[in-house]
Write a structure and sequence with these properties.
A 7-stranded antiparallel β-sheet has the order 6-7-8-12-11-10-9, sandwiched between helices. A 4-stranded mixed β-sheet has the order 2-13-5-4. The relative contact order is 0.19. The chain has helices at 10-24, 31-38, 44-55, 132-145, 198-201, 206-217; strands at 4-5, 63-64, 68-69, 80-81, 85-87, 94-100, 105-112, 116-124, 149-155, 158-168, 174-186, 189-197, 220-221. It is α+β, with helices and mostly antiparallel strands and 243 residues long. A hairpin with a 2-residue loop joins strand 9 and strand 10. The radius of gyration is 20 Å and the shape is globular. It contains 6 helices and 13 strands.
Length: 243
């Protein structure tokens, strides 16, 4: 972490603790209790994926804008403000803005370290729950429809999806497209990162992913206060040039 965290006082922490207990308690007479009993059991794979997600916390990022103090730096760290996210470039980093040609809206960014790439997009999410299980299910179904292969593994941000999709190379020959997907939920948002290149071919090679891992960890998400439906893209903006 390369910036200051905003400190919470003891009273705020006590209130949050009480709220958490209230939210997780079950009233035997409440309709929700019956729904929980009647809910279908999770598959072993999904239960394991959710356990990995639960083990991960965002103490070391990615961060919400309300959790950090970007003005507390005493160093010369330069950041790029892309509106819905604020990123910290690393030495030798390349960056491309992925723009929707019809709307001229920046939908995501693709950063690279010369051997691997990371496509980052931010989405609106529920305030007090996570969309990760829902999106994971959608990606698994889409992969099956494309006759690809997918595995759910433990990654640096909880569960991660490792996909292999059949594609055609520029010469029309059969090829395979490999990717790894990271997803992190925050207060009202979900951040998605899709790894490409060497970090995907060698998932156990920490050196191949360390720069992109740290980049993703240091992202600060600015959800904004405007009402946005969960799952909707949080558009980015072109960073302003320094004078």
């Amino acid at each position: 972490m390369i910036f200051g965290r905003k400190k919470r006082n003891a009273q705020e922490e006590a209130v949050e603790t009480v709220e958490t207990v209230e939210e997780t308690s079950v009233d035997e007479e409440a309709p929700e209790a019956e729904a929980a009993v009647d809910a279908p059991e999770l598959s072993e794979a999904e239960a394991q994926a959710r356990a990995w997600d639960d083990e991960f916390d965002r103490e070391e990022g990615p961060f919400d804008i309300e959790e950090v103090d970007l003005e507390a730096d005493e160093d010369d760290v330069k950041r790029l403000d892309l509106g819905s996210i604020i990123v910290t470039p690393f030495e030798g980093m390349t960056i491309q803005l992925q723009v929707n040609r019809e709307t001229n809206v920046v939908q995501s960014i693709l950063v690279g370290d010369g051997e691997s790439g990371l496509e980052v997009a931010a989405f609106a999410g529920p305030t007090k729950s996570s969309m990760v299980p829902e999106i994971r299910e959608e990606i698994i179904k889409a992969t099956a429809q494309q006759q690809g292969q997918i595995a759910v593994s433990q990654g640096p941000f909880g569960s991660e999806l490792r996909r292999a999709l059949p594609v055609k190379d520029p010469n029309g020959n059969a090829a395979t497209h490999l990717s790894r997907t990271w997803m992190v939920s925050g207060p009202g948002w979900l951040l998605r990162g899709v790894l490409l290149g060497k970090a995907t071919f060698e998932p156990d090679n920490e050196d191949a992913q360390v720069a992109l891992f740290e980049f993703f960890s240091n992202i600060v998400v600015r959800r904004g206060t405007a009402p946005v439906a969960p799952g909707s893209l949080l558009p980015m903006k072109v960073p302003e040039a320094e004078g």
